[in-house]
Specification:
homodimer, about 240 residues, alpha/beta, Ribosomal Protein L25, Chain P, Alpha/beta knot, 2 domains, seven-stranded parallel sheet, five-stranded mixed sheet, 12 strands, about 25% strand, elongated
């Protein structure tokens, strides 16, 4: 669903200062995208954001094969930061991992942290590719913020350095014992932890159970795939504790 | 996330009566799947469901290249019907359409209805392939019910025959005017309607707005892709009105 609130039809994330009258020299990649892929021309508009200065309408003032220039006109949306919610997840198959990152960006996660768990099959991820997915999702969803995708790290190391003021919300059927549907989800700062296919190991379960501020999020009577669980948990948190209300 | 509540590791949907001692002759496809793909053998177990009689543990009693026989032992889960919630959606790109159907089955939609809207690009769908996705999702998610995927039909025709006792919940930013986050979602029978990329046409909006029992579901400040909106809306309904609580 594309909404119609943008003045410019296309949105572009740029690592460049934005402001009234600001001129922006385009990289070769951006020039290629705007002028060859989208076939935009001088005088046409693009919406720009850089993750910190809101969204700006910009006009194409010069085009070229290897570059071009934009000029910022007016700010069309203020900078909007997502709530302080992290998504911590164990990478699964490539398509579903891409999907999780895309959806986390759309649903307003502030940070995305892939972790290796005892039952994680993926030994490595392409962090740069996942970051590009998050960026593209931000361009698509009209957001002004791009969540950072961290490098893959062991879950145990992440938990070693866990700031206990950040609530940990997990979705893993085997971990919760009796689900507690009446427990409201904790407010920010919070993190949602999604286990891999196969769930957490007994050692991981024991460690998670022993932590303070650990809250299960019940996700119904059917077993959800990891990607579904991620989207569902992000939705419930945003609707009750996040910026949806 | 695979839970460990099944006794048999593999689950199979079959259009066959299930019951104590019931013998089941396998189709060639099922025999191939069980004996060649999964490499199961005589004496091993499979969990079976047919959409109406719960889940049964069955033992492999004969194997063959083009067939084989199972025998039902005990019922391992009662039949569980999902709440009376439909998902009505406009098909988008192939992968995302597949995804919507898979997620709707996992999240417990009772029926899945693809519709052509004024701004729908897809002129046709492969209903059989989508139905197979729903079935596979039910096998994976431990459910005992497989939602029926309807043939593609025009939204206007679906609305012509709409039973107004079924609440219509839509997710389309342009349609809602002022979102009403405080409005609780209506209970079953209900249907969630997800618009295509580009949203609904002015004529469709006018018609939907004029209908009784139409409720917007607000999905936050960012623009969600159609597949994300489907998962988010199904989650919110199931968590508040469905079988998650």
């Amino acid at each position: 669903m594309t909404a119609h609130r943008e003045q410019a039809k296309h949105r572009l994330y740029l690592e460049h200062a934005l402001g009234q009258g600001q001129a922006i020299d385009l990289s070769r990649d951006h020039a290629h995208y705007l002028f060859n892929v989208l076939r935009l021309n001088t005088g046409q508009r693009v919406a720009l954001f850089n993750g910190t200065q809101g969204e700006w309408q910009a006009e194409i003032v010069a085009t070229g094969k290897r570059g071009g220039t934009l000029r910022c006109l007016t700010q069309s949306a203020p900078q909007r930061m997502p709530p302080d919610l992290w998504l911590v997840f164990a990478p699964i198959k490539k398509t579903r991992t891409d999907f999780i990152v895309e959806k986390a960006a759309e649903l307003g996660a502030a940070r995305i942290l892939p972790v290796q768990t005892d039952f994680t099959n993926s030994e490595r991820i392409r962090q740069d590719r996942l970051q590009a997915h998050a960026l593209e999702a931000a361009e698509q969803c009209g957001g002004t913020y791009v969540p950072q995708v961290a490098q893959l790290q062991p879950l145990s190391r992440l938990l070693d350095g866990w700031d206990t003021s950040r609530a940990l919300i997990f979705a893993d059927e085997g971990l919760s014992g009796a689900p507690a549907p009446e427990t409201p989800l904790p407010p920010a700062p919070a993190a949602i932890l999604i286990g891999p296919e196969g769930g957490f190991s007994p050692a991981e379960r024991a460690r998670l159970r022993a932590m303070d501020h650990v809250t299960p999020v019940p996700l119904g009577p059917r077993i959800l795939r990891a990607d579904t669980a991620a989207v569902a948990a992000l939705t419930l948190w945003q609707a009750t504790r996040g910026d949806w209300s």
